[in-house]
Amino acid sequence: MSPIRDQLVEVIDCLPETEQSLLLQVALRFIADDVATMEDLDDIQAAREDYERGETISHDAIIWD
Fold it and tell me: Percentage of the chain with pLDDT > 70?
C-alpha cells in the first residue's frame, strides 16, 4: 500500500464505528455517481469520429423551436 493509504487505514482503525460511518459518507462524495456505460462510451467514440470526418452540424443550423 501507499504511505497515504496506510495512514488512512490507521486513522480509520482508530475511529469509533459512528465516526467511521461519517467518514464513509464523506469519502463517497469523491466517487462519481455518473459513471459512463459502455453504450455511452461507444456513442462518445462515434461522435468523435464524426467530428474528425467533419460530419457535424453547426449550432446555428439547428432550429431550436
Answer: 100
